[in-house]
Design a protein that fits this description.
single chain, alpha+beta, three-stranded antiparallel sheet, 5 helices, about 60% helix
């Protein structure tokens, strides 16, 4: 068991803003930043900063679609944790 990795996971999940972003990504894979910001009631800048942290951890991936970038949850362990917490798919 990798204690440091689990500690990092729980640290990132403990932030309510990041958790809310992860839940929306879980429910709406392929969402763009503007729509994600609207869904969580935050600015695009704040959401982009959170996404940067989550991408750095390998939890989120991005795909460029023309001028837009879409995001999706990319970590199976986090995906399963969100299910365990009760976050379903839309």
């Amino acid at each position: 068991m990798d204690i440091a990795a689990w500690s990092t996971r729980f640290d990132l999940l403990s932030d309510p803003h990041r958790l809310e972003i992860l839940i929306v990504l879980h429910q709406r894979p392929g969402i763009i930043v503007g729509d994600l910001a609207a869904a969580v009631g935050r600015t695009e800048t704040a959401v982009s900063q959170a996404l940067r942290v989550l991408r750095h951890q390998g939890w989120v991936s991005s795909t460029r679609q023309g001028r837009s970038v879409s995001y999706r949850l990319d970590d199976e362990t986090v995906h399963q944790l969100l299910h365990w917490m009760g976050a379903g798919h839309s």
